[in-house]
């Protein structure tokens, strides 16, 4: 399936806020909505929402908060803290009211002065790997 010709097509490194970038492996459509920034292609949809940092909370404290708020059904939980970026990622299979199962990879990335949440919804293992690459590419430029 092809990209939607009614929206911009982008690929590679994307400046998503003044402080955050991600790298897209291949072409995606891009649109901005009230809920955040969306990149999508058939089989994979990425929602990105950026926030400022809470006053007085360290990166480690924000990671701890996110860990505590993670779904009890979370699997494949990974966490890292390096180069002043803290990351927490996990997978969740969510069942919608119509019975359809939606596979999600959620990533929270924290820098000293900001944070970003990425929700990736994927339809196959190949798209899960692309979602992991995107989540792993989140960079904080301070």
DSSP E strands, number = 9
Estimated helix fraction: 10-25%
Report the β-strand fraction as a percent range.
over 45%
Radius of gyration: 15 Å
Overall mean pLDDT: 91
State the separation between the terminal residues, measured CA to CA: 37 Å
Number of helices: 2
Give a written overview of the molecule.
The chain has helices spanning 59-69, 125-136, and strands spanning 8-15, 20-33, 36-41, 44-52, 75-82, 85-95, 101-111, 114-122, 139-140. It has 142 residues and is α+β, with helices and mostly antiparallel strands. Strands 1, 2, 3, 4, 5, 6, 7, 8 and 9 form a nine-stranded antiparallel sheet that branches.
Which keywords apply here?
alpha+beta; 9-stranded antiparallel beta sheet; 142 residues; 2 helices; 9 strands
Short account of what is shown:
The chain has helices at about 60-70, 125-135; strands spanning about 10-15, 20-35, 35-40, 45-50, 75-80, 85-95, 100-110, 115-120, 140. It is α+β, with helices and mostly antiparallel strands.
SSE arrangement:
Layout: E1 8-15, E2 20-33, E3 36-41, E4 44-52, H1 59-69, E5 75-82, E6 85-95, E7 101-111, E8 114-122, H2 125-136, E9 139-140
Antiparallel strand pairs: 1-2, 2-3, 2-9, 3-4, 4-8, 5-6, 6-7, 7-8
